[in-house]
Amino acid sequence: MIYVVKFQQFPQLFKSQQKEYRFEKCIDCENASIQRLSFKIPKMATTTATSITHLVAVSTTLGCSIIQSESFWTTSKMKKKTLSLKMSGARPIAALPFDLSPPPIDHDLLETVKSVGAEISDDGVIETFNNDDDALDAVENGVVVVDLSNFGRIRVSGEDRIQFLHNQTTANFENLCQGQGCDTVFVSPTARTIDIAHAWIMKNAIMLVVSPLTCGSITDMLNKYIFFADKVEIQNITKQTCLFVLVGPKSTQVIENLNLGDLVGQAYGTHRHYSVNGMPITVGVGNIISEEGFSLLMSPAIARSLWKTLLSQGVIPMGSNAWEKLRIIQGRPAPGKELTNEFNVLEASLWNSISLNKGCYKGQETISRLITYDGVKQRLWGICLSAPAEPGSLIMVDGKKVGKLTSYTTGRMESDHFGLGYIKRKAALAGDTVVVGDNITGTVVEVPFLARQSPPLKSSSS
Predict the structure, then answer these.
(1) Residue 148: burial class (beta carbons within 10 Å; 0-12, 13-18, 19+)
(2) What is the value of pTM for the model shown?
(3) Cα–Cα distance, 126 to 358 (Å, whole number)
(4) Are the CB atoms for 231 and 158 separated by under 8 Å?
(5) In sequence order, what E strands does 188-248 have?
(6) Which of 196, 199, 165 shows the shortest CA–CA distance to 181?
(7) How far apart, in Å, are the Cα atoms of 443 and each of 17, 381, 446?
(8) pLDDT tens-digit series, residues 278-334
(9) pLDDT tens for each residue of 213-248
(10) What's the chain's average pLDDT?
(11) Rounded CA separation 286/297 (Å)
(12) Residues 65, 199: contact at Cβ < 8 Å?
């Protein structure tokens, strides 16, 4: 078994053990002398536990860091293979076969961004970098990074986790494999919407990203539905992890610069585990607002350094105020606004998150009945407005109430006004004119997030 270790100090400590260790010349990194050490474990001590324990002990003593480890066995003898890691302007990132385990919280990201002028709310949310217009422009022409660490992360583990979430949400988890992901919806027994969750299927757990508004209630709800014989554990890991998302057409270039090009072109939800400076990070394709871009889940201990690395790649930071504008313009429904007990999952047009063929699950009977009898009476639309409007305002056509405005925002220009709202199916279509509130003119439009949704074929497996 061969291990590769990098270290910067105390090479003289190995002089007495030249038979056990061999130095190899390595590239210069950040103007520091880095050497590579091939560490040979005697054949009699090549169990995984013994090797890793020994190596970690050496690492702790000397300040070394493990780049990568791997066994190389054949039927006749052990073979050595050289391990190498491509270097870029960013710190090296090497793939490691681990499953996310929540690390202790210890970071100073908020202090870092505050020192450069960011405004932070009392509950620790980065509201703005005072660059909202530039950040929204970068979504279309460059790339932004958003700290979504205030969003909930729920870890579902245990032998029955797949079947459990399969029964509790709308997506077909039984068709997914390790390393894949999907969007799924938490609904009430009558299919009223609670929240959309972005799910990653890991080796030993499923990780869910949910709204900060619903994380606590969803955690409680899932625990409520665990029966005595179920082998399921629910863990809220929000405070033990950080979440960044990259949005914009140049996000792919950034990922390639970080030596993560193997994710480029992969399906939405595909994710892989890596290590940065010995700390775990999971990177996935897409984010909660778009199938393009990437999501990065990490230990808080490396959040600050990773944030700086991303900015060094030309990424523009975006605060929560601009993110909310982007959410509305993109048409992504949010709890407490578009996702409430007032509307069902089909009215929210969340077709891509629903399986019609997986059997019984919470809300399934109502959903099936709505589809069978064409019972969806309204749907969510984008609305270009002539003036500011209050969420909750009535939407009218020919003097008749046909819907309700659920979200409102200004655009990049102060004269731009945009909203989301539910409108009765037969009352208006894209391009039609409506009246919102006190004689505010609106034009019904498609929005990107909802335009990607399409009703699944009943004959297909989903």
Answers:
(1) buried
(2) 0.77
(3) 40
(4) yes
(5) 193-201, 205-210, 233-236, 242-247
(6) 199
(7) 77, 10, 10
(8) 788 999 999 999 999 999 999 999 999 999 999 999 999 999 999 999 999 999 999
(9) 999 999 999 999 999 999 999 999 999 999 999 999
(10) 81
(11) 12
(12) no
- Measured CA to CA, the distance from residue 156 to residue 237 in angstroms comes to 10
When comparing pLDDT for 111 and 53, which is higher? 111
Q: What angle do CA 433, 435, 439 make, to 5 degrees?
A: 135
- At 33, list the tokens: 């002398």
Burial grade of 369 (CB within 10 A; 0-12, 13-18, 19 or more): exposed
| Cα 265 to Cα 6: distance, rounded to the nearest angstrom | 32
CB 96 within 8 A of CB 275: yes
User: pLDDT category, 457, cuts 50, 70, 90?
Assistant: low
Q: What single letter denotes the amino acid at residue 79? A: K
Other CB atoms within 10 Å distance of the CB of residue 81: 8
Whether 171 contacts 355, CB under 8 Å: yes
Calpha distance 459→81 (Å, rounded): 49
The pairing of beta strand 440-445 with beta strand 378-385: antiparallel
Share of the chain above pLDDT 70, in %: 75
Give 439-455 pLDDT, tens digit per residue: 999 999 999 999 999 87
CA distance 250 to 105: 31
| 367-231-268 Cα angle (round to 5) | 50
DSSP 320-341: HHHHHHHHHHHT---BTTTBST
Cβ-Cβ contacts under 8 Å for 69 (sequence gap 6 or more):
1, 3, 4, 51, 52, 55
Quickly count: other Cβ atoms within 10 Å of residue 3's Cβ: 21
Q: Which of 320, 426, 334, 436 is nearest to 384 (CA)?
A: 436
